[in-house]
Specification:
The chain has two domains: about 270 residues, no CATH class; about 110 residues, no CATH class. About 50% of the residues lie in helices and about 10% in strands. The protein is elongated, with a radius of gyration of 25 Å.
Length: about 400
């Protein structure tokens, strides 16, 4: 990888010229020029929003309106298009430039680099548009929202009272509630339904799902990971201070609470964007160097990648919430999908003005560096054979 990076540094002026030429060539003779970088993701947004939100009635949450869903989709589309475009072009980059590689002393490692940078520049134009849309819907013409519910108060058996700005999902019947280290079950005839809590009687198990919080009247709590019939599977039990504790005793009520409504907006967290773009570039470059080299050995790689990218796109929570995937029992899909981690980080920053999840950020950065190490090593090792393979 060090030899690869040293060569890029040596030929950085060539990379800059290639990026400039590629961006110019995309829209040469076009009336609107770079404005097409804005139109493409917006058109895709309207198509997918119409299909998934209005035709298929894709349910994100009770609190999220159409404008918020549109912004979530737009941020996902921008990131995905940059990744998919660069991956497709880089896979065939060496074959498309065979005349340069075979006839002159050309630094072929500049090809995947300039294609990565070109895709990122186009994405950044779209990100500026996304920031403008968030500004419009958050501050200029905010969408009407239902009045915020008052904080929920829970009085635990210890006598301690805690207040939560969370959404009530459902509650169990105390006498029929049973606990284990990783499960909560309501065995009553009307399980998880119509149980009174703070004046609420409209709770349903259907409303509960992945990442919600289960509180026991004893004061212990856990994070919901899966629903198995009338049984909730949780991660581990903690006390209100966050320390691990034994499961609650049977016969105490369990209350399921979800995240409160999150207002859209911008904040100082935008300073993280350069880091996200850098990590995305490293990941894309790692994928590109690996696939472009492999494509010389197996020319079908280019065609297979086109199919795999379609499958990968619909396996990434772009047009639907990740929560639905976990609730369906396929949480391992986004859990193993680096692009899903990246999109989640972008959404936190661009849509909610929050800081990205550091775990996802570190995980994605590690995946990107590992891919770049593997891809650049594979690329440089076979570089002397490129003229013969072409």
């Amino acid at each position: 990888m060090l030899a690869f990076l040293a060569s890029i540094r040596k030929h950085r002026r060539l990379v800059s010229d290639l990026v400039r030429r590629d961006l110019h060539a995309r829209y040469v003779g076009s009336t609107m020029g770079f404005f097409w970088s804005v139109i493409f993701p917006v058109i895709n947004l309207f198509v997918y929003l119409f299909v998934f939100r209005f035709v298929l009635k894709m349910r994100w949450s009770d609190q999220q309106g159409d404008s918020e869903v549109a912004l979530l989709m737009l941020s996902g589309i921008l990131v995905w298009q940059a990744f998919a475009e660069s991956t497709t072009r880089m896979t065939n980059a060496l074959v498309d430039n065979a005349n340069l590689i075979q006839k002159v002393l050309f630094p072929s490692e500049t090809l995947p680099v300039y294609l990565t940078l070109s895709s990122l520049v186009n994405m950044l134009i779209g990100i500026v548009v996304a920031i403008g849309c968030v500004t419009w819907f958050a501050y200029v013409r905010p969408s009407p929202r239902p009045a915020a519910e008052p904080p929920l108060s829970i009085r635990f058996e210890s006598g301690e009272t805690a207040s939560f700005k969370m959404t009530f999902r459902c509650a169990s019947e105390a006498a029929a509630t049973k606990y284990t280290a990783h499960t909560v079950t309501d065995t009553s005839p009307a399980a998880w339904s119509q149980q009174p809590f703070e004046g609420k009687k409209d709770g349903k198990l259907l409303n509960a799902g992945w990442s919600d919080t289960v509180y026991a009247a004893s004061g212990a709590w856990a994070t919901l990971r899966e629903k198995d019939g009338l049984t909730l599977r949780v991660d581990r039990w903690r006390d209100l201070a966050g320390k691990d504790v034994d499961p609650p005793p049977d016969g105490v009520q369990a209350i399921v609470l979800g995240d409160a409504e999150r207002p859209i907006g911008l904040s100082i967290s935008l300073v993280v964007l350069p880091l996200l773009v850098l990590l995305q570039g490293i990941f894309m470059l790692g994928v590109g160097t690996l696939l472009s080299t492999f494509n010389l050995f197996v020319r079908d790689t280019y065609h297979v990648i086109g199919v795999l990218l379609t499958v990968w796109m619909f396996g990434t929570p772009i047009f639907y919430p990740e929560r639905l995937v976990h609730n369906a029992g396929y949480g391992w899909v986004p859990g193993l999908n680096p692009v899903s981690w990246l999109i989640s980080c972008y959404r936190e920053v661009l849509v909610y003005g929050a800081w990205p999840d550091p775990v996802l950020l570190v995980r994605f950065g590690a995946a990107g560096l590992a891919l770049l190490l593997l891809g650049s090593t594979f690329f440089m090792r076979h570089k002397p054979r490129f003229p013969d393979l072409l």
